[in-house]
Amino acid sequence: METTQISKQETFIGKEDLLNHWLGHRNLTRRVIEKFPEKELFEFSVEGMRPFSDMVKELLSIATPGLSGIVKRAEEPFSHDMNMTTKAELLAQWDKETPKIIDLYNQIPAEDFSKPFNLFGEYNFPIKDNILYFIDNEVHHRAQGYVYLRALGIEPPFFWER
Q: Where, by residue number, does a divalent metal cation bind (predicted)?
């Protein structure tokens, strides 16, 4: 079996395109939150997993604080201390964070994307990898939300409609 390594590659996706890709995921995740009935958003789980509201709180605890740390070059510890108890509060916070994400992201020079940053003082990777982690983590938790919605008999939004 032959393997090929690429030592140097041109940019696959530009900074603006990556942000738009992420914002598409955020739009879809918001629609998943909207689909949940209030009670099930905070109480329903499968096989001991967390309720979807807790996953959403995690996403809110990572994206803006993580980008803020990158912009300020501050290795502040991760904090998951969010006290939101209604779907309206989660959605309002989600909407409040999106412009902050855009602003913070746009403050990161494209040439810094390959520079290392120790996210939350724990994850020392290039900035681009930290940003990809934010997106990957959201997709992962949104997929769990899809499983919950299907288990509740609710059709989730089409994943490709971002």
A: 141
What is the greatest pairwise CA distance in the chain? 54
Distance CA 149, CA 130 (A): 29
What is the tens place of the pLDDT at every residue in 58-73? 999 999 999 999 999 9
| Nearest one of 78, 111, 80, 97 to 26, comparing CA atoms | 97
Please check whether residue 45 lies inside any domain of the structure: yes
CA distance 28 to 160: 9
pTM: 0.89
> How many other CB atoms are found less than 10 A from the CB of residue 10?
4
The CATH number covering residue 101 comes to: 1.20.120.450
- H-state helical runs in 73-118: 87-106
- CA–CA separation, 122 and 78 (whole Å): 9
Number of domains in the chain: 1
**Tokens coding 29:** 């995740």
Q: Is there a binding annotation on residue 140?
A: no
